[in-house]
User: What shape does this take?
Amino acid sequence: MKLRNIEQLSDKLSDDIAWRKKELSEVKSLVERKDISDQRHQLFIRSGVCILYSHWEGFVKLAANSYLEYVRLKKIRYDQLSSNFLALAMKDKLKEAKETNKPSLYIPVCDFFLVELNKKCSLPKDAISTASNLSSETFQEITNILGIDFSIYSTKSKLIDEKLLKTRNEIAHGNYLLIDRDEYIELHTEVIGMLETFRNQIENAAINEDFKRNSS
Assistant: This one.
């Protein structure tokens, strides 16, 4: 589906987060059961942590690239882009120049800033990557690229890095961990909250046209 207007972007984010929340709710209901053995209970929790992480990474990646697609389809000029999106548009040109010792490769970059800023922008598709390892540092980089405020999540860094990512990695690598039911439910609540916050931030950024240089 082409994301040409706010409604299409909002619908895509709403549909995607809805099925994730439904699945996570099903897992949570299994974790909360008290009529099962301790061994099965730990199985549900360990599986739940992996699923929590997968939805955290999956939604952030989808939502970020959906917003990028929305901005890309606006086809505004380079000189109308906010600095973060202009940097993304220039990423490949700057990377190619940086990785060589040829000063001549900087000439097209200079030409771009001198004569091409009034052309319609060309943003890359699906350029936002979580590197299959969505740490707080990687997430902050994503928010910076999108021009979204990370400070809301500043108190969540330890939760993201240790309780979510590190625990998921240890489980995925076959290490046995005992995780308390209440600890899992708290993690579930925090992840749902972060997903909702991120969705709202992206929708607000699109509505307010934060991707434009002169947006207020």
Observations:
- The radius of gyration is 21 Å.
- Residues 6-75+123-207 form one domain.
- The chain has a mean pLDDT of 91.
